[in-house]
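Project channel, design review

CF: Before we commit to the Aspergillus fumigatus constructs, I'd like one complete example in the thread so the newer folks can see what an input/output pair looks like. Taking FAD binding domain protein.
RD: sounds good, go ahead.
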Amino acid sequence: MPTEAEDVRAALLWAPEHQIDLAVKGGGHSVAGTSSSDGGLVIDLSLMNSVSVDPAAKTVTVGGGATWKEVDEAAAAHGLAAVGGTVNHTGVGGLTLGGGYGWLSGQYGLTIDNLLSATVVLATGQVVTASATENADLFWGLRGAGYNFGVVTSFTFRAHEQPNPVYAGLLAFPPDQVEAVIEQLNRTLEHPDPRSGAICIFAQPPGAPVPMVNVIVFYNGTQAQGEKRFAGLLALNPVVNTTATIPYSQVNALQNPMATYGGRKSFKGVFFHPPLAPSFARSMLDDLTARLQAEPDLAASALLLEFYDMRAICAVPREATAFASRSWTQNGLINLRWTDARKDGEHRAWARERQARWKAELDARVQEGVPQYINYAERTSLHLLSSSLAIADKC
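CF: and here is what came back for FAD binding domain protein:
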């Protein structure tokens, strides 16, 4: 495994010379499986995981193989936070290069909107710095389409003051309340607050007979402020309520139990333009429930729907970066998990059919094209300047 940019350079030059497929692994979260290569060479960046915080400048410089857990903890030691992902063992590299939504996006935009510079090893073996003032065209491309240009071995981000704990936790509701829950989540977007966000998860907790309607809520403020913000959800009397004030550095661990490594998986990105029709959400929950009851091996599967204030993201001109999906359209993810290899094709086909239904629903509502968040996109491999050199980081 490489420990410096020169090691990465050597691999980049060697692989095409020997016609070897090459993939790059950060945290190993690639939805499309592009952080691995069957029979090829994987550059595992996990040893390049240094994190350096400059409290005076309010910046964080991160190795290309670091995870967000390492960033969150290092920044918190100085009363700071960076805009990162909502699962803390996600790698910094892949999430950043595809855009990067997180709990702080309502206040500070995407992860790429807080990227100040990057060190990149190009396919030629050249090691360059990309920033607003140096290799600006490369810097533009890295922010949103960054899988295509090289291997990033270091990132420098703008950090933000985060001295206070935050209000966050899980609210769980029985399936017969799905319409009421979605209505309340829609209202949070009708009256947006940059300090808040939510992720709705249709999933079957261990021991439960059917999938529940689970909501992870977040408010960057006090418990009283958070409870006021989510009063509508709390009034529905959730059967589980784990909300509390916790350090921000712990928030991105809330989804970890549902995002474990291993097993067979099929992830499919979905999207919706708010307000999400409660009746459509009901149909998707019923569909998932029927599938899980018919296929018990899918019990660890889930459907995730994000509810973020997009105003800070939309405030950045679309042409400023390679990230095109700056709109109020929200993202989601079909996450199927199973163990029986004989069911691979069947389960993947089912997920694709449901993804198509989400696309049709959005097409019917907005009729202006369907955006695709690259970190949730299905793709085979991403090529770096040559069909024989596939460069993919984790997302």
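RD: helpful, thanks. The radius of gyration is 21 Å.
CF: The domain at 166-376 is CATH 3.40.462.20 (Vanillyl-alcohol Oxidase; Chain A, domain 3).
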